[in-house]
Amino acid sequence: MAAVQDGQLNLEVEKDIKTEITNDGSGNINANSSSPGSTSSGGKSKSPAGSGEDQQTLLAVLQFLKRNKLTESVDILRREAGLSADADDSPVSESAGAGSGGVPSVGADGGDANSLLSRVSIATPVAPPDCGLDSHGGLATPIYFHSSNNCACTVVAASGGEDQPDVNVVLSAYSQQGDPVLYPLYYNGLKKFIESVLDCHRAELSQVFYPLFVHMYLELVYNNHENEAKQFFEKFSGDQECYYEEDLRILSSMSKKEHMKGNETMLDFRTSKFVLRISRDSYQLLKRHLQERQNNQIWNIIQEHLYIDIFDGMPRSKSQIDAMSGSLAGEGKRDANKAKVFYGLLKEPEIEVPLDDEDEEAENEEGKPKKKKPKKDSMGSKSKKQDPNAPQQTRIPLPELKDSDKLDKIMNMKEATKKIRLGPDNLPSICFYSFLNAYQGLTAVDFTDDSSLIAGGFADSTVRVWSVTPKKLRRVKSAADLSNIDKESDDVLERIMDEKTASESKILYGHSGPVYGISFSPDRNYLLSSSEDGTVRLWSLQTFTCLVGYKGHNYPVWDTQFSPYGYYFISGGHDRVARLWATDHYQPLRMFAGHLADITCTLFHPNSNYVATGSADRTIRLWDVLTGNCVRILTGHKGPIHSLAFSPNGKFMASGATDGRVLLWDAFDDVELDDFTAATGHIHLPENSQELLLGTYMTKSTPVIHLHFTRRNLLLAAGAYNP
Amino acid sequence: ISNHEVFIYAILRSPSIHEFPERRPKQCTVVLPTESMKAMAESIGVGQLQEESCAALSEEVSYRIKEIAQDALKFMHHGKRRKLTTSDIDHALKLKNVEPLYGFQSQEFIPFRFASGGGRELHFYEEKEVDLSDIINTPLPRVPLDVSLKAHWLSIEGVQPAIPENPPPAPKEQQKAESTEPLKVVKPGQEEEGSIQKGQGAISAEAKGKKEGLMRMKPRSTHELSVEQQLYYKEITEACVGSCEAKRAEALQSIATDPGLYQMLPRFSTFISEGVRVNVVQNNLALLIYLMRMVKALMDNPTLYLEKYLHELIPAVVTCIVSKQLCLRPDVDNHWALRDFAARLMAQSCKTFSTTTNNIQSRITKTFTKSWLDEKTQWTTRYGCIAGLSELGPDVIKTLILPRLTVEGARIKAVSEGPVVSNIDKIGADHVQSLLLKHCASVIAKTRPLPDNMEQYRADYGYLGPTLCSHVVKARAQAALQAQQVNRTTLTITQPRPTLTVSQSGIGGSGGSRSPSIIKVPSSLTLMSTRPGTPTQPSPPATKYIVMATSAGASSTQQVLDGSLVITLSSSSGSSVTSTVASATSTLQPLVKLESRAASGLGGSRPLQKYIVVSLPTSASSSLESKSGMLPPSSSSTSPISLEAGMKMDHTGCVPNGTLLPI
């Protein structure tokens, strides 16, 4: 009975640690550890496999006590267990040498170890023998964990100051370790349990599989159990959802602890908690099961690495979960999507241009035939009513409208009156621009809003601009020539152009790597391009020279885009940070950090107050330009997101990813109240979305890279012919 | 560890590793063999490497390579490509702050060589020593064309126009499926349905199939032509038979390349069939030639599958081969060239469309043989039959023509040496003689053992023996000359180019062969496309094309070739340097196009005639030939429609008296 008392003593110690380490799970652990204590008197049988474990447990306890200067307890325990001093010292030193967190090795058996096992076994509590897990998951396990955890922290913190201290600290969380052989059993046990629960809970609880699997695998790898890790992977990787395949491939290539250091993907998995949404009922079910089965290994992972977002309400169905899952770090947290988004459009500025002037200037500027049409006041009346969802006009400072901008707006309105109404019975005409002889080198395309210019970014680092109207591209004259011009003349804007340079296309040289993103400014005076060389360049379309090279991304910049109001632009790339720039600042105004993998596409909201970024971590984030906060995390895609688009009214967003799906989002209204089970964020279409497909138009051998609706609703498409 | 890493990166930068990221590992657990480590270590000067360190290294290297490959994939995706290139890997290395590997800027693939020996297998990058003078003397490769922008309508109010820039509305495969297996018509939109049907249980499949067959006996197809199509049809047919040669060339070009003609095919085939019927009666040689050129153009169109319309086209073509009279003045007009041309068309359609169900080839062969054997057959028809047969290939010549040389010789002798019956007969006999000599000589030269004894030939082949003998000697001499030229005209192109255009002036020779066989590819050499089938295959240096061409000399009387040939080798893979969209063909097999400018004497006054002969690989067709020769006439046709078509074919057999029987 003295041994049992010792056990209780240990329990108290453990409680203390528990309260320190865990926050909300401590109560559970206590309840958990006390219940087997009560059953221990009944259970006398002891499986031989567990004896080694118990011995280690004891050694670990001793070690912990020693470390905490509880020498008295050490002596008592040692006396009771009949353990000699050298028996516990040797494994400890060995493990310390290994540097893996001061964990006694499994196979250590001293000369008298066997004899003392029989005595210890009486003292240790024994779980019901029906389950394989239970014989190992005894009372002592939690102590064992936490003691070793503590050690690990100290050891690694001491030794990890070489090159990447933070990485080591991050990874060291994996140093807590159970018997590697038991991992499959733990996992299998949970699997059996989840398969046996009620159908309504099964889908929700199945979400736990993937993060658990990954963390258990990483733990095994971290603790140098290479073979066990491989076996574990082979056994259970097939069970995971198919959309995790890409991650699993990366995972499987990591079989050594050294690999983990440099691997950013897994580092992310480690540092950011995997977010799951589970209904309270399902969660209780899981918790109860793990406590009953003493499955602390798994419970620990759930505590440490998972963020379980518990909600009250009906458990979600499989399809509901599938609609949201798939991202690298689980779903977005509920409170992350709470912020209000002002998705309405800004009020159109009142344009007070006298009729005659406007037409005259329009003629001068655009060379278009004069149209003596009485100007309608429709646009004024339309914009008088303030959209309740719109942000304040001055929420972010926007550039003032220049005269040319106003003219352009007027042109836009005129064009809009000729807009063709499209519908299922009235499909758009598509004009396709093929880039010939591009040798597979076309990487990005953009059209100007008025569809007069096309720009292409190429793998050979060049940017080319074409004029698709009869109006040729001309350069402004050199400074010397400009000084000779009569600045008072009416057609000064024409005179500054150098007729000799007129051509249909111009090439812009300056990048030193493939150009991946390209964007025209709304006023057609500037062009942005982002490249593999880590820079974003601003080009003038008046002089056809580079004006600024924005340096900040040190890695490839995958995409860039101008704000619909000009002046601001956004860029995002391999460094996982999206940057908001203003054209007259060489440093970014905002940095949006949070994505766990490359930012593959960036997009401004039509009201310029928000920025959407799509990432290879399979999430879309919406950022507030004013505050720099992330206001939405949209999950549901199963592959890297490669294209984004806002609806012209700013209310909806569409996204396309390599999973071959296009999702339509209606996530900016505050729809997600308590009962968010009804709303998945994106509009859930019926299974057969074929009905929505209005037409398929094949190209011969030309991948489509860019699409653009003109102001009159003609669809322009572009791609490189690829024979 | 740091030492290790330095070493690993050193290995990564050794060229031999570079091949591996190119191939995407199917299994995640693939690890490089330790032998590779040893080989790589040796290549950078580390002599002895322990087995354990090899194993450790190979694991580490495998992991690093996978990492780099994963990064490289990112660049591939952002480059909007489906093929990983060396530059992607360079960029991925740059991400890891490793210096990229220079010198692997190949567009298509890296020409690694494979070698084994001494129990070791190696992949290595072959760097040949190149003689500087060779480089200087090689003509410069063409400058790649600049990027240009071209606009076309992909869709007009939801309807895709059938223009060359757009893919054909009904792909050839679908047309083929429709005509050969009419019950399994799968329209693009109905694919899912089809697959579902396939998945049905086997028990009900048969009953269901029958039911389906009844219901879909006549697959619906629209035969209404839009206004534009009607206009097009009118313009094209007028141009084809009109008097303006330039317009005709344009029209034929349009027929041969336009992808949207599928719906107009029935009209065209009826037009040709009716046209032949009328013009044979009127002996209008010029129009018959124009119509045959239309057939040729239709057959050349890569987007059309003519099987459904053969019952109209074949009788027309055969009529042009064997008709008794094709022109008003048989003694002056060169109707022989028309027969030759039509015979070649016939041979081509046999090769393309003959199957075990329709048995076109054997039936055509029978038709020709039957009328040839007839004693009363005229010389013109006789000529046509022989031309038709001999175009079908050397096997047919060997089995059907050679045995009859003696008989035919006697007949020719009777005309040429006997009492003068008529001038026409004499000309006919002359033509038949030269035709026989030309075709038989080349076959005999290949098959007969060497001593060419004049007397022996006379004994074997009768009257024609001696002349044949001299022709055979010439043919052999020419073959020897060609063999020599293989060594001389080796053309090395330093930069692999998907499209290669070689212009070579013809070398004079006798036996003016106009058949596709004038391009001879020696069996030991392979003309390969720039992309090998599998990367693991040891690839011979792809940069070398050996093209050997001998052109027909202007020796034969009927055909005058001006001796200039343009040979275009185009491979289906890779990026074409040509700028026109329409020029890309989607054929799978390498296509050898022979454009020969032949100044034909047809019709006397017409200018240069230009036509294109496409020679297809002969292996498939020769096997078909032998098959169709042995098999009985089709009795086991599977589908009612093709059976029906077959019966039609029988009905519309050609009689050699110059008119077509109505269907």
Structural write-up:
The complex is a heterodimer of chains A (723) and B (663). Chain A is an alpha+beta fold. Chain A is built from 23 helices and 26 strands. In chain A, the strands form 8 sheets. Chain A has a 4-stranded antiparallel beta sheet with strand order 4-5-6-9, with no helix packed on it. A 4-stranded antiparallel beta sheet of chain A has the order 10-11-12-13, with no helix packed on it. A 4-stranded antiparallel beta sheet of chain A has the order 14-15-16-17, with no helix packed on it. In chain A, helix 9 runs antiparallel to helix 10. Chain A is elongated, with a radius of gyration of 33 Å. Chain B has 663 residues and is α+β, with helices and mostly antiparallel strands. Chain B contains 23 helices and 9 strands. Chain B has helices spanning 2-13, 34-43, 51-78, 86-95, 132-137, 172-180, 191-199, 202-215, 227-241, 245-257, 265-281, 285-300, 310-322, 335-353, 360-373, 379-391, 394-401, 405-417, 423-447, 454-461, 465-488, 618-630, 640-651; strands at residues 112-117, 120-125, 148-155, 491-492, 499-505, 544-545, 561-570, 591-598, 609-615. In chain B, the strands form 3 sheets. Chain B has a 4-stranded antiparallel beta sheet with strand order 5-7-8-9, with no helix packed on it. Chain B has a two-stranded antiparallel ribbon with strand order 1-2. Chains A and B meet through helix 13, helix 14, strand 3 and strand 5 of A and helix 3, helix 4 and strand 3 of B. Chain A: InterPro entries: LisH, TFIID_NTD2, TFIID_NTD2_sf, WD40/YVTN_repeat-like_dom_sf, WD40_PAC1, WD40_repeat_CS, WD40_repeat_dom_sf, WD40_rpt. Chain A: Residues 1-53, 85-110, 353-405 are annotated as: Disordered. Chain A: Residues 30-52 have a biased composition (Low complexity).
